[in-house]
# Entry
Amino acid sequence: MSGVAEVAGIGGGKAAPLGDGGSAAGTVGGDAQQFVIFHVDDESFAVPLSEVQEIIRMPEVVHVPLSPPALEGLANLRGSVLPVIRLRQVFGVGDVEHDDATRVVVLDQGRPIGLVVDRVANVVTVDADRIEAASSIKGTVDADLLTGMIKDQDGQSMVMILDAGKVVCREFKAIGKAAGSALADATRASGSNDERRFEVDTDGSDESQLVSFEVAGQEYALPIEKVQEIVQIPGQITEVPNTPSHVLGVMTLRNRLLPLVSLRDMFGLPHEDVSDANKIVVVSMEGQGSTASVGVVMDSVKEVLRVSNAVVDPMPPLLARNGDLGEIESICRLHNGKRLVSVLSAEKMFSSGDIRAVTANTGEEKVMAEDETRGRAGVADDEEQVVAFRLMNEEYGVPIEAVQEIVRVPDELTKVPKTPDFIEGVVNLRGVVLPVVDQRRRFGMPSMERNDRQRIMVYTIRGVRTGFIVDSVSEVMRIPSSVIGPAPSLSEEQQRLIRRVANIEKMKRMILLLDVDQLLDVKELAAVGKAAQ
# Structure
């Protein structure tokens, strides 16, 4: 390794340099231990060699908003997302520019964590009688972050033994928790595409997750495991003759034929023509050893609910005997019964035979069956469609179904007094007052002058239609689910907002995937809603 210096007089001078990118492994006999020695500012530190996975040069990092100041960013480590921590920030010494000697010591803390150090010295073997307790250390470094110190033979100089676990837990409490649940993270990351799309977390057997939506002013829901995805209304729907009135026709979804039905017409509610405001919930149905998919047209999709099973009641027997209500299997009581959500049964709503008859009328039943087989084999439906945009030098993404529209930033926005600093103002968007948030300020980033590349991305967050100014919109892209994994938990706010990361190694891109519903908290959402009045 270039820039490695030998440290003399420690542990009898038994030292073995560790090469760049090399694996850190090694054992010694007796009571002796091996340590990796490195420098931060004018101090020398050590970590047990058994905790070191490897030592690498300073990689390119993606900076994460709303994260603790000690986080350098996220790096790509051979396909894995590596959080990188600045030890200078942890120890309260001034930052310096990285140079050729800068290294990242990658440690195993339940998941890989990188520590940025000024310079790596060597690997040494230390006898147990050379290690003293941390309580005897008096210096600029908090003794709580140390497990002991290594003294030379004269006792004049020392190397502090760093407790990397305490550094991580103190600076990044969420990382500490994540390290304890690394197995759960890995399980979720390797789960089905549907689970990743809707962030299904099955750690509570007495809870259910429901996707709720609205039709004709009434709220309905489906179990989240039945919902494959939510997509926009296509530009063209192919009508199918000799089908029930609630069957709108078929559309193409990723080279598959998807039957479309109107929940309004199915339930005998007032008819309305389908428009861009509607959403399609793709529902999976199982029957006779196969799985079919159908698109259900809703007025709007509301939210993903996590509810206790104690507030979910089966349909009253008297109503359940009514054939017209057979599609509703239970009622969810929220807000002390003031909000009732009808939970639907996908199997009772649709007949698999009827749905296949729709595709048969188009002469494409075989194509759909083959595509379903490929989907179960993991060839189809293994990607997510996101809108990618930029803030400063980093790239973010949101699900395409969350984006209502993208518009240019007008020359002037109307300022609203007594609103949070991140609310840029309001704009008239086709007769509707739209509150606009400066995404940079919301993330604590420096502001920038208005330019032609900036855009307003419009979302509906818990019923409040809001625009967010971004530096530029890159593209609409399909991302393989295999490269999407859970984001490292760096802070509570970041954990809510940025839950996943797309690490596209072949393109050398790392895209932070945002949870749109978490862009504003309850108080912020109330302020935005007030600005729109």
Observations:
- The two ends are 63 Å apart (CA to CA).
